[in-house]
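User: Modeling request: complex.
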Amino acid sequence: MVKRYRSILLLLVWMGVALGNTWAVEQTFVTISSQTGTQDTSSPAPGIGREATYLEEMEKTQGTLTSDRLVSLSGVSLDFYRVHGSSAVGFEVKLQDYTKQYAFSSGSTVDLSVRQFLYGVNAYHRGGWYYPFIGAGSGSVYVKLQESVTQSGQKYGATVYGQVPNPYYYQAGIRFPFGMFGILLVRQYLAATVTVDTQNAPLELGGEATILGFSVTF
Amino acid sequence: MNLRTFFIILGILSGLVGAAFSALAQSKNAGLGPLELRSQYPLTQPFLSMPPESAAPLPSGVVQYSYSLAVANTFVNTQGSTGQITQSTVDRGLTTDDFQDLQGNDVPGFGLYLDVESQRHTLQWKRGLGSSEISLEMPFVSYSGGFMDSNIEAVHELIGISNSSNSGAFRAYSARDRYAHYVIRDGSFLQANEEPVNLVSGEPVFGWKWGLTEGGDILPAISLKLAYKFAGTERSGNQALVRSGGADWGHMLLLAKRFDGWYVYLGDGLTRLGNPEGLEPMQQHRFMAMEYRFSDTYSFLFQQMSQSSIFPDTSANLYVPDTWGGGRQEQRNASLSVPSSVIMIGQKLVWGKLIWDAAIVQDYSNFGNEVDFVVYTKLGLQW
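Assistant: Request completed. Predicted assembly structure:
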């Protein structure tokens, strides 16, 4: 049980220890960024993700999944952080959306509309022209899932709403500042599994994501 | 493992690491604190709920007396999409038949017609006691048709939400500012009332908050809140809509961290209901709050609060044949058991011994298991 969250705990403790050694001049910044990227929902976040079998259950009755499991993310983030010399610690809130249609060889489809509201702590190193950072957190992930399936020659539909009560993520990234503007590259690992009642099976809404962003810092 | 266990482990680690960093503990990680507004959904009103609050207990010896008022508008019509319950149906009086599906069958699970504006008045006393804080509160609740329906419908129209659609909760089918409170389960009414409820006293709640650490420049302040709601014995008539008659227990782990002018608060907790009467006996609560301090005495707050549904999961059949134009009622009602979230935007002001909070709350999950809109204010004296 503890093993599952060991990586997050170690990360948080490391952040505290690392920052404790770099105390100097203090200043607070606020960064807003617009983000876009791809998230591979077939790759559970290492250490915190769990096996999701909803699509495999659907394949048993609806044929082979013909779609890939990559989704296109778009979103915004607000990040405020306090600088201590060459390091900084801060809090980030981000909102990410995606839609996706999974298709099966029988012609059945599953349409997803997902919203990821995430928040957590980040730790930065300010290396002059580049700011690498790591972070971890939680939030809420919402989904509207619509199935259109064929059973015994009859077409059926089902709409399921869901909210993942305990999603977790961790991330690593780097920001390249150009004055008050910046370019952001983030690798995000999100564990957000919801049980879909139609199949009584878990579906991974998160996964491994690569995100590109453009930021403005005040 | 869920977030509570995670926070407990983090708290233990923080205590250990905190000792090593105690020399760095220069500033307290507590601003004016989050808006202390609990769930106002009519079905949760009789039960204990763990609202957001600061991780910092009142300083030892400090006393706070306060009065708060939350006016909450809730409108849910699970029969709206099929047009089965409209103003004329309510005028003649709702029966269990109105909650059947279009095929005339009782619907497994829950069905709702809630046209409720609640007023929750709360008197609260708090006192700092060493590194902890004790509190006692007493609620008084009213249910009526209220006054906000027309304003909410106007805002919906302004931002392009149809009051004849699911997004607009099918408000257009019903009379404005009218009180109706119907909850049905498996074809039988759990609650059925159209008589306004005026200032019925609820059940008192005792709280104890233990400040584990004030934190420092690195570590957050951490505290544990325990709460107990006493069981009322008198529940005749409409009192049953305000008093649960059961002893409820709750706990919440609270964290707070300062980033200069910004403060972040996190909390995760659980409530166990003593007499749920067919509703979900365990309620999970979680919040995230961000406070920006314009000055030592004035703050702006943004909060998000999530909680599990008061409606238990049902074994609803989720598949609807395409040939069924009206769909399957139980399929539509299944979303009632999904966790929901609200956002709060507000301000806090301290003026000498006077404290004043004001906020609005909006449900954005739109699953029918939360209030639509809340106006909240709190006035208090602290010395």
